[in-house]
Design brief:
Largest sheet: 4 strands, mixed
Distance between the termini: 87 Å
Shape: elongated
Radius of gyration: 35 Å
Number of strands: 4
Helix content: over 70%
Strand content: 5-15%
Number of helices: 12
Number of domains: 2
Structural class: alpha/beta
């Protein structure tokens, strides 16, 4: 039963007041009256008679002691109430202050340094995660029964088949735009026919695989991070380890294999769709019939352009799959962390895909490919 709080003067000791009853939030109104006007002239406050004490009661007791100007040794508390009163006293005497953000030059350098350090840690984590995935794949390769074929096929459907309409549509539209803009420039020189070489080389070497990788980076990497992050947040991955299973083998490898198989196929479809967009513009606006377009494409385009584009597809697949799964594994357990890691995975995959594509283009150019 809750006891009504009391504050009265000790009849046997003048100047000493006694606090008793329950000093809790339920009696806040009466306790505020005590803190505002009670115990006038008290030199000592004995609060050992308090039965229940919560944070609200401790704060009002501290206000009463401060109003009376009592020293620390003039307030007697029960041993079990002393830690709570001390914590409330610390908060009341030094309230949290709003930290103003420093916009100075030194603060700018500090934030840049922290960002660089964070990126370096992300790179090291990605390298370590890649090594762990490779080691797990080597262990599983010798034992086909450990491969998750059902999960792999399911991911192939979500990663590859479900993305086909979007890849075809965007590649077709980009091919049409590139052909139209190229024709506008080449028309000044009477060389509209070279639109065929422009479309063929652009999509076989760069645009086909790059567009596909960027689409999957935004579509698939975010899905991987959200799926694994939700499992990490719900402690399902800890449960998998408790059951003696390997999360790398169960969650990561099927997704990586699905991407490695489907990204080259999607890139090939994107190449065809981009060339189809060029054929459409050529036939409708440039007077280049589809037969003429395909014949010139066959005469002028070498197979090495196609091989260069397809060689980058497995690399992009590994980057997308590894970053998407790694960011999911790094979720801290909150919904906000899931959102942050999902955003980070999309940004990292798109950025890294573009950087790798630029470096590969320079390398193939220098090697004469």
């Amino acid at each position: 039963m809750a006891e009504t709080p009391l504050l009265r003067e000790d009849p046997g000791q003048p100047g000493q007041w006694l606090a008793a009853g329950d000093w809790t939030l339920a009696h806040a109104r009466q306790l505020e009256a005590f803190a505002g006007s009670g115990a006038a002239g008290a030199q000592r406050l004995d609060a050992r008679g308090i039965g229940q004490l919560d944070a609200s009661g401790a704060m009002l007791l501290w206000r009463l002691a401060r109003r009376l100007g009592l020293a620390v040794d003039a307030l007697a508390l029960r041993p079990e109430h002393a830690p709570l009163f001390a914590a409330v006293q610390d908060i009341c005497t030094s309230p949290a202050r709003r930290v103003e953000k420093d916009y100075g030059f030194r603060a700018l350098l500090a934030r840049a340094g922290f960002t660089v350090e964070d990126y370096a840690k992300e790179v090291l984590a990605l390298v370590a995660f890649t090594g762990e995935a490779l080691l797990t794949a080597l262990k599983v390769a010798g034992n086909p029964r450990r491969w998750r074929f059902t999960a792999t096929v399911a991911h192939m459907e979500s990663v590859g088949l479900d993305a086909v309409p979007l890849v075809l549509l965007l590649s077709f539209m980009v091919g049409a735009v590139v052909a139209f803009l190229g024709a506008e420039v080449l028309a000044e020189f009477g060389a509209e026919i070279f639109v065929v070489e422009l479309i063929g080389i652009a999509f076989l070497r760069e645009f086909g695989v790059l567009l596909t990788a960027v689409l999957l980076a935004g579509r698939t990497a975010s899905a991987f991070t959200a799926q694994i992050g939700a499992m990490q947040s719900g402690e399902e991955i800890d449960a998998i380890r408790t059951l003696g299973l390997d999360p790398m083998e169960l969650l990561v490898l099927p997704r990586l294999v699905a991407l490695l198989l489907m990204l080259p196929l999607l890139s090939f479809l994107a190449m065809l769709a981009g060339i189809g967009g060029g054929i459409t513009i050529g036939a409708s606006m440039l007077g280049i019939s589809p037969d003429m377009f395909i014949a010139r494409l066959h005469e002028t385009i070498e197979v090495r352009h196609f091989l260069v584009g397809m060689a980058k597809a497995p690399v992009f697949a590994l980057v997308i799959g590894l970053i998407g799964c790694l960011e999911g594994m790094q979720v801290q357990g909150t919904a906000q962390s899931v959102g942050e890691r999902t955003t980070s995975s999309v940004v990292q995959t798109i950025s890294l895909v573009i950087v790798i594509d630029a470096l590969a283009a320079l390398w193939f150019m220098e090697m004469g490919f």
